[in-house]
Structures are given as C-alpha cells and as structure tokens.
Amino acid sequence: MLSTYKHDLMNRRRFLQLSGFSLAASSALWSCQTSSRQRSRSDGRPIAKYRRERDQSLRIACIGVGGRGLDNLNELLAQCDAGPNPQFVEISALCDVDLGMLDATALRIPLAKRYRDFRLLYRDIQAGAIEIDAVLVSTPDHTHAFATAMALACGLPVYCEKPLTHTVAEARTIAQMARVAEVPTQMGTQIHAGNNYRTVVELIRSGAIGEISSADCWDNRSWCCGQLTPGALVPASLDWDLWQGPTLPSAYIKDVAPANWRRYWKYGSGTLGDMACHILDLPFWALGLGDQSGLRAEIRTDGPAVDSVGCPVSLEVSWALTWPSRQAGKDPLILRWFDGGKVSPTVQELSAKDGQNYGRFNTLFQGSKGFLFSNYDEHLILPGALAEKVVTPAPTLTRPAGHHLEWINAVRAWTMDLETKSEMTGSNFEYASRLTELVLCGAIAYRSVDSSQGTITYDFESGLVGADGWAIKANKLMTAPSRDGWTLDPTNLIFDAARSRI
Ligand SMILES: NC(=O)c1ccc[n+]([C@@H]2O[C@H](COP(=O)([O-])OP(=O)(O)OC[C@H]3O[C@@H](n4cnc5c(N)ncnc54)[C@H](O)[C@@H]3O)[C@@H](O)[C@H]2O)c1
C-alpha cells in the first residue's frame, strides 16, 4: 500500500514540477482520474478502465473523422482484420465539428454515437454514459493537445496524429500526463512501423556508413502564405467556434478547413509542422536523439521575412546538436531540414557528381565511410563500393504488421490487465513528444530570430531557450494564447465539457 502511494505521489510531484501547476489546481484532475478509473493493480499502478477479454471488441472513439481521420479509421479496421489473429475493434463514437464529415463517416459506421464537441464525448465517458477503451485523435494540430489530454486524464489509451501538439509547452505537458497515466500511446507517424525505416536504423546503428556527422531531410511541399479573408462566410456544416477550440476566437478564414489550416501559425506550422515528424523521425530515431539527456540544439534558419499570420513559402532549419555523453571535442551533430523547393547542397553535389536525381529520397545521412539516402520505402548506400561490402545487420528491432495495429495490440494487453511497456508502441508519447519538440523549436527559431545569421539555443531539459538575444521572443512562442476555459490545467480539462453549449 505504501509503495502504491509513493509511486503515485512521485508521479504527481514530477508532473506538477514540470508543468508548473499548483497543488490546489491539480487536485481536481486526480479526483477526476479516481472517479473514472476505480480499478488498479496491487501495486497501485493504473489499470484499464474496463477489462476486456481477447474475444471482446475494443471500443474506440474517433475525434476528427474527415481527411486523415477517415484514413485512420479505415487503416485501423483493415489492420485489425488482417493477419492470422484478427483484433476485434468497434468504432463506438464519432466526433467532428463539421456535420458534413460526421454524416459521411457515419454512413460507414452507422451504429456509432455521434458528437460535435469532444468535451461532451469525454463528459459521457466520465459519467459512464458511453463505454470507451481508447481514443483516436485526427483533428488539426491546434486541438491535438486538448483532445489528447482529456483522454489521458480519463485513463484512456490514445493515438494522436502528428505533430503530437501545436506548441512546445503542450508537447511537454502531454508527455508528462502520459507518464502518469501509463496508458498505451502512439503518434500518427505510420512510416515508423515500416520495414525500410527499421532497416535503416539498424544499418546506421551498426556503423554501415561509419560515424554520422550530419543528416539532411527535405520535402518539396509548400504549406504557406495563409492570409486572413475578412467577411468570408462560414460553411453551413461547420461549427467554426468549436473548430477554433482553444485558440483566441477570430473571424472565419475562407477555405481554412479542411487542410489549409497548415498554412497558418495559429493552427499549424507550415510544411515543417506537416512533414518533419515523418521525415526527421528517421535520423532522430537512428541517432538515438530521444534518449540523450542534456540534449541542446543551436538552431539557425533561413527563409523569407517572417509573416505573423502565414507560414513561409520555403524554409531551411539547422539544428547543431550536443549532449554531455557525446565524446568531448567532437563537432555537434548537424540535422538540417529543407522545404518548399530548398535543396540540401550535399544532395545537389552528389546528384551532380553521379548524374542522378537523389531528390527522390527525403533523407541523407553523411557518415565517415559514406552516405545513406532513404525515403519511406527504400534506401541506397553510396559509394557503390561501400554498398557492396555492407552486410545487412541481423534485425534488432521488431517488425510490426502496422502502426495502428501495434497500438491496438498494446491497448488489448492493457485492457486484459497484462503488463504493458511504453516500448510496445514505437511512436509512444515519450519518444514522440521529444521529436515534436525538436520540430516545433525549429519553427520557433525561424519566427523569433530577426537575422539569418542569428541562432537560438534550445535546451531539451528545461524546454526553454537560454540567454540568447532572441530568448524572450522565442520562449513566448513555446505556448500559444488560449481562450478562457481552454487550458491544459487539469482543473479545467473535464469540467469545461460540462459547461459546453451543445
Ligand atoms: N499521418 C499522416 O500521414 C497524416 C496525413 C494527413 C494528415 N495528418 C494529420 O492529421 C490531422 C488532420 O489533418 P487533415 O489533413 O485530415 O485535416 P482536415 O482539416 O482535412 O481534417 C480534420 C478533420 O477534423 C475535424 N475537426 C476539426 N476540428 C475538430 C474538433 N475540434 N473536434 C472534432 N473534429 C474536428 C474536421 O472537421 C475534419 O473532419 C493533422 O494533425 C495532420 O497533421 C497525418
């Protein structure tokens, strides 16, 4: 009993320290968790809200069911149906702020309960009015943290699209909430589960191209140039107020939804925010950056003059990474991102030298012995003489049948009261939150530094930019202003749902 109490208390203290919540403010979260989850292990650690046997369906709530949300729903069902041991899942609730999206997906899943406001879904979950075992979040970035935090506060496993959150501070809070909840989590970087990424990680770690000095990543998309459109009319099917969620309310922007919200800082982070969690995932993983304590990044960016509304047409970001256990005297590890048509000079040089277009890849590792190009599905080692010598290492990583299935398998184990570990899902929030931080602090560097020669230094331990000329501006961008009642402060998470207007 005593160890139970200690474990809980330790987690709560860590959470409060890291998130800056007052003890009084936190108490409501914990009463919410206790009321919504009566069951616990003999050592007091959390346990699934409902026990489910292997032949009972896992009941999933999907929040955001158009666009990627519909793909997620379909992929989840398809992966669970495939293979020799199908997993029984049932989509029990659909939630979308756009009636058109909600109704269209409801045609596919007619028996699911429908919601427009996810706070009401969580209120019903809390009250036991609907039984849910896990939540899948596919809303635009600015609502990820809120929809996810409520799941975690209810003790529910959660799959959330990438980037895990819209701000650095949110990523850190969600990571801490996930540590406390101990539920299976997964960020929607489905390529992480693929064979090619796993083989590349094994190759890099086996030293196939020697010691890595840098990795370049790129994507030619250009989610840019969002502009305000005063006087635009809100489409009849869309609840604009709910869509805005935690952001400060403003006039509707023509065509911002679906998808174009990526062009606006207020809701997304341009191409970097859209694609870097998929692509930087590979070097981040292969180079073990999620595991390094004391990690710091000196960040430099290059792009057009900053617009306070719209994201840039193209952007280059460079993170010079150091950490204490990296051999003293070594140069920082350089990670670079290029989008909107910007091209890595190393890729350009290699393409010109070999008369090839290596632009079909999206990642280049530079090692002391050679190079490794990769995209989602294939990789290539250069020079050819080195490639001929490289022996594919014996697999050290698992090969999951699917990213969604990996999460569902962990959820199944969780609901059967089996021991679960965060490593059961490759893109668990411990890992995903740090990758998200790395990506988002690149955007912060671009938005806060006034000159292409300037840098900021981000400290992954504190979540802050230290003592640089632009630190005040940069640290302000770690959070986004939110409207009344929308805060990740646990006291408001659940109770606001009860005040919701639908
Ligand atoms: N993993 C991938 O390959 C991949 C691909 C595309 C998008 N995504 C991610 O998926 C998320 C959604 O992107 P998208 O392109 O589908 O956006 P979208 O705008 O096309 O669709 C979002 C859906 O969520 C709904 N929605 C918006 N706010 C909501 C709220 N508060 N509550 C409930 N529903 C809400 C919208 O009505 C819409 O149906 C983003 O985070 C994006 O980065 C991931």
Task: Give an overview of the whole structure.
- The structure is a single chain.
- By secondary structure, this protein is an alpha/beta fold.
- It folds into two domains: 2-190 and 402-422 and 483-499, Rossmann fold (3-Layer(aba) Sandwich); 193-397 and 436-476, Dihydrodipicolinate Reductase, domain 2 (2-Layer Sandwich), CATH 3.30.360.
- It is 38% helix and 15% strand.
- The protein has 18 helices and 15 strands.
- The protein has a nine-stranded mixed beta sheet.
- Strand 11 and strand 12 (371-374) form a beta hairpin.
- Nicotinamide-adenine-dinucleotide binds next to helix 3, helix 6 and helix 9.
- Nicotinamide-adenine-dinucleotide binds at residues 63-69, 95-98, 101, 118, 138-141, 143, 161-162, 188, 190, 242-243, 245, 257-259, 274.
Would you state the CATH class of the largest domain?
Answer: Alpha Beta
Uncertain parts: 1-36, 495-502
Estimate nothing, just give the exact number of structural domains: 2
Number of strands: 15
Q: List the strand order in the largest sheet.
A: 13-12-11-7-10-9-8-14-15
Q: Count of helices? A: 18
How helix-rich are the residues, as a percent range? 25-40%
Distance between the termini: 43 Å
- Small-molecule binders: nicotinamide-adenine-dinucleotide
Task: Report the sheet-strand fraction.
Answer: 5-15%
- The CATH architecture assignment of the largest domain turns out to be 2-Layer Sandwich
Mean pLDDT metric: 90
Q: Radius of gyration from the CA trace?
A: 23 Å
Query: Which term fits the overall shape?
Result: globular
